[in-house]
Hints:
The structure holds 2 protein chains of 2 kinds.
Chain A: H1 2-28, H2 32-35, H3 50-57, H4 61-92, H5 98-107, H6 113-127, H7 134-137, H8 145-156, H9 160-168, H10 173-184, H11 186-202, H12 205-210, H13 219-229, H14 234-264
Helix pairs in contact in A: 1-14, 3-14, 4-8, 4-11, 4-13, 11-14, 13-14
Chain B: H1 2-11, H2 16-42, E1 45-46, E2 54-55, H3 59-67, H4 69-101, H5 107-115, H6 122-132, H7 139-146, H8 161-170, H9 174-185, H10 189-197, H11 202-230, H12 234-239, H13 251-260, H14 265-290
Antiparallel strand pairs in B: 1-2
Helix pairs in contact in B: 2-14, 4-8, 4-9, 4-11, 4-13, 9-11, 11-14, 13-14
Amino acid sequence: MARTFTYGALIFLSALFVxxxxxxxxxxxxxxxxxxxxxxxxxxxxxxxENFATSWAEQPFGTYLQNSMTVVVxxxxxxxxxxxxxxxxxxxxxxxxRDPIFVLLLATMMIPWDVKMIPLYMEFNFLGWIxxxxxxxxxxxxxxxxxxxxLRQYIMTVPMEIDEAARMDGANPxxxxxxxxxxxxxxxxxxxxxxxxxxxxxxxxxxxxxxxxQTKYTLPLGLGLFQGRHDVDNIAxxxxxxxxxLPPLVLFFFVQRYIMDNALGSSVKG
Amino acid sequence: xxxxxxxxSRRRPNLAPWLFISPWILGFFLFTLGPMVFSLVMxxxxxxxxxxxxxxxxxxxxVMLTQDPKFWQSLGVTVKFAAIFVPLNxxxxxxxxxxxxxxxxxTALFRTAFYLPSIISGVALVMIWKWIYSKDYGLLNYALxxxxxxxxxxxxxxxxxxxxxxxxxxxxxxxxxLILLAGLQSIPKELYEAARVSxxxxxxxxxxxxxxxxxxxxxxxxxxxxxxxxxxLTIALLLTKGGPLNSTYFFAMYIYDNAFKFHDMGYAAAMxxxxxxxxxxxxxAVLKYSAAWVHYEGDVKGGGNG
Lengths: 270, 306
């Protein structure tokens, strides 16, 4: 009885959560006539997959995609590398001021983006970085509080004996980090890489503020401004939206196990 | 040789940890502390993007608080959004987490369905909902019409626009849900077994076991939802552009407009500091008063303060 109710509720609610995705995908392959039909046409008569190609050609989306890829790849490498480096420093050394500095690091997570947005614009303007991809890439090479925290947790689960054994064998701190801990925290690195990839791929406000020129736009910025100008071409907007959603969704399916393991513990059965 | 080096390095002050954490330290000065100090200084100036800046003391703050109705109006929109969104976000996440915590086949699939919307871009989310909210062709009003309800003009009616933004934002509750689900799964099963044996009804188990045991997670999600609610910008910027009749003109949007549309950098910086202070005060207040209802494992009641 209770089980039936749970099932019913889960099926109904998950249908509600998935429906907007399906509706957008269906919209993307419709014809103009089906789009504005009332009552709405759910199942397109013939699936016009060519809508994706024609929509893609309406704007320099290829350029936007290239910019997005540049930002995402270069900043993800930087984020994974720098955050793991810093996490190792906090997890495996004692030094004066370590704990207060770590609290300060955690506190930076509370600072709203709005406070930093204006002075960062001035700073990047001063450096001549406005209208380049640098403001979206370079800061990622200096670590991020949440990721450092997450990786520190991973490192702290590794028994100290492993470090001691490696030191006995003559490993210096860099080798300890590079050869021993980096491979051991691989699940954590996958997680950080994934979360950062998604943040960077999805970011709208950063590109909106730091980029002016259409040739520099990232995909979300390009889509956002395309929608502002072409309020009528809803099929094209739906098609590009589907494309914009794909990388995070595909990535999620590959690393879902790591995300759920991290959140829920490894006892979870997939 | 290595042994000798290890000993000698022990006598010298150890530089290694500082080298490892140096990226963050540098980044903290370059991209956090430096900009924040700079913005605090800017907030004391009349600072146009081009032209001469002029020191005005606390004038930006005074004008904001006493002579700018748009400041209060936009702050009101943000507070209203936060007051509705934050409790709903936690309540719905909690209910979904409870459902997912029941041991039935296929929970992994349902969990994925609830989580997916939280990983897509805010821009994509807006494009998806904009079409669903369409007055004439939208899926939502069609569903309502099946129930005999004449759906409103979601994005064009100032009474409904903020609700439209709240619903679209709630679609992305997956992260909050996952945290609460993790909390539920870490509650020892023995507590429920003991309660069942003593004949405690299910609702009482929820009130006296689940909620107290989950309270640290509830607190954490409350504070993080609050912080993100105050920064709400992307969805409003793209879904309603602040309209109609400024009904979704959020505080963050007013900061953005002041800085990048009206080019009044000093005033915008002052507003951003007001936002930071509000977030700081609210979070501190929540944390302070949470001591009364948050239960930490291993707490000894009255065992010592601080």
